[in-house]
């Protein structure tokens, strides 16, 4: 054994050299070559063998370097047996599944090497449709035995894509780990802000199990379980991805989506029928165009006793008040400044900037009892009138 200047040891035996280089027979012949041609005392021979080792391994590392934009698949572990080279990767169709059938390596991959451009992700799939287990690759590396990550002889297909997707885009995938059918919503926030966009007929309606997105600043996209915006929801903002939406209860459940701006115009209130700003909605803007202190009924709006989520943006000193009825002595809620309530269920949420008042006159509600969330009887689907007023 000798120590190289880098501090790594090299055991001069055929098995060790073969394993390091991943080629058959080389280690044995290399060792015999040195034993035959290097003469002299033990110290001299050891020194010369170390120098030859450094040069040999350097040349071998160059000869086995993976070219850029390349993935190499091997039949056996330690990069042995049949091989398949995918190069250049990014000249193949992006976001498309490429089957390994007919290559001799379908369900036969036991090791692989790769050298991928920055920003590129490469994925192996267990099944040809992109379903099942997956291995995600990026950068430059290798894996000498896929048995170690429970993927031996499992690869049936692969795909690649750029990690950075275009701005204002949401991509829906049929399966986990971005496999299966793909549906791209480009220019998402350039479409009608108040419209629910159904995924029916797209191939991923109630079938999407992974998503990627890039949403412009100041905007968000909501994904809904039902086409009318009802049920559970998933909020997207900024850049991100989710390889498995089952983790948040939306796997194979997304039916529609919509977008809206984070900030409402000043002196505006938006009332929604469903939680997470879904379903039927009305926008009251500006609230100050209505007479101050006048009760306004919600009858005929589709939201009478049906409000479950709210957004608002009010100038300082303006109060937007919701009441259970026109007596203003039962349940009421005052909103000030700016905020939102995703679900009117005080038993599960804490609402900042919101005063809950029960059994107190609306005129004196600011001095009345503030109901703690755990004590509140529930405020969803109970408001039928509203008004605005000025308060210092």
Strand-helix topology:
Elements: E1 2-3, E2 9-10, H1 14-21, H2 26-37, H3 42-63, E3 70-76, E4 80-86, E5 98-99, E6 111-115, E7 120-125, E8 134-137, E9 140-143, E10 157-162, E11 169-175, E12 179-186, E13 197-198, E14 210-214, E15 219-224, E16 233-236, E17 239-242, E18 256-261, E19 268-274, E20 278-284, E21 296-297, E22 309-313, E23 318-323, E24 332-335, E25 338-341, E26 354-357, E27 385-390
Antiparallel strand pairs: 1-2, 3-4, 3-6, 5-10, 6-9, 7-8, 7-10, 11-12, 11-14, 13-18, 14-17, 15-16, 15-18, 19-20, 19-22, 21-27, 22-25, 23-24, 23-27, 24-26
Helix pairs in contact: 1-2
Give a brief outline of the structure:
This protein is mostly beta strands. It has helices spanning 14-21, 26-37, 42-63; strands at 2-3, 9-10, 70-76, 80-86, 98-99, 111-115, 120-125, 134-137, 140-143, 157-162, 169-175, 179-186, 197-198, 210-214, 219-224, 233-236, 239-242, 256-261, 268-274, 278-284, 296-297, 309-313, 318-323, 332-335, 338-341, 354-357, 385-390. α1 (14-21) packs across α2 (26-37).
